[in-house]
UniProtKB/TrEMBL annotation:
Signal peptide: none annotated. InterPro entries: UBA, UBA-like_sf, Znf-C2H2_OTU1-like_C, Znf_C2H2_type. Residues 76-98 form the C2H2-type domain. It comes from the Eukaryota. GO terms for molecular function: K48-linked polyubiquitin modification-dependent protein binding. It comes from Ramalina farinacea. One of its GO terms (cellular component) is cytoplasm. One of its GO terms (biological process) is negative regulation of protein ubiquitination. PROSITE patterns: ZINC_FINGER_C2H2_1. This is C2H2-type domain-containing protein. It holds the Pfam family UBA. Residues 93-122 are annotated as: Disordered. Residues 113-122 have a biased composition (Basic and acidic residues).
Amino acid sequence: MSDMENLLAMGFEQPRAELALKKSGNLQGAIDWLEKNQEKSLDDILAKEADNAAETDPNTEAAALQPGEEAKSLLCNECGRKLRSVAQAEFHASKTGHADFAESTEEIAPLTEEEKKAKLEE
């Protein structure tokens, strides 16, 4: 039985299950994502996705670094996610299977203490 069939058998709606599998890549990740986003309507989730896609179009490649510029973050060219370090990029790659990353001069703001606590609770 496929991951999609399993999610449908559990009673999840097909569009929501498809999005969860797209976001996570596997059954357990999809279940976690669905649980985390169960209070949000599918329309709200899709609207946020559209906003994020407009901000970082994965089809647009990052510009090459100019001489003297320093890479301050990494960008996943497959999903547009910005990552602070090579270690985060490696973790992202292992979780998603993505392998196309580019260096970026855009610096990601450090997490506040509240954001760090929230991340640890997730």
